[in-house]
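Now for our specimen.

. . .
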Amino acid sequence: MQAITYQRYGAPEVLQTGQLELPVPKTNEVRVKVHAASVTTADSMMRAGVPRFGRLFIGLTRPRHTTTGTGFAGVVDAVGSAVKRFRVGDRVFGESLFGAGSHAEYVCVEQLGVISRMPQNLDFDQAAVLCDGGLTSLSFLRDVGQLQAGQCILINGASGSLGTAAVQLAKHFGATVTAVCSSANAELVRSLGADEVIDYRNQDLRRLDTKFDLIYDTVGKLAVSKHLHLLKPDGQLLSPVLTLPLLFQVIRTRLCDSRRVRFSATGLRPVVVLRDLMRELKQIVEDGHCRMVIEKEYQLADIGDAHRHIEGGHKVGNLVVRP
């Protein structure tokens, strides 16, 4: 089968299109013929091996898992002898975490892994990206930040994968949403439900008068120490991007501040928790409260272009690759 691999950390040029053996599902696995896969910021960071302390998890000197990609959607085409939850022909989506990558024609996933039948109202492209922005933002808003109806939230990076999902999920939970993005994407973000949209290029967030219950920095670009004053006394700043300054603020606010700075790695949460999040997210999507925004689609051989687009810093919504 055709797949994208890399043997060392580096620029997008380290990605190679090659031929791998067709995987055979173990007794508790399903094999999925991939129809679409997500290409994410996390993918580009793992390819580059940054931040460097992240190599403790993915390989110190070279990548431990050499096939790229996590999010996928496709059709089950083979099952192991012990599989009961899925049948050949099922349309499924999910995440292949720290194992066989999804940027391939086929991927094997444990039946009790992060995999579920697709929402009926999504196509393969939309389902493939559901676990990046949708699952991550649901984890942050529901579990980490415990967002409640009537609260105020500031979402930085509101036009990206996590941001477009977060705007819709926050409105679904009954919050008032202030979204931060460029003016070019303001109408898109408003169409997703944002109550107010701020152009970060023309307005200094530090001078806002509003106080927020939650700040969700989806892109990890806010200087935390310079924006904590925007929180209410018991407010929280949430980030999926771990840096040393953020880690310092996580520790400092836990020790001596009523406000909190929190980091979470959604992909490292227990699989049983991720499956619970998938069930809730699937229902939200099927009820029409959240849609996936897709900017571009690529062929597998052009995945380097997708990585370069991500590193350009102006990705809108999600990117999809098709084997």
In short: The first helix runs from residue 41 to 48.
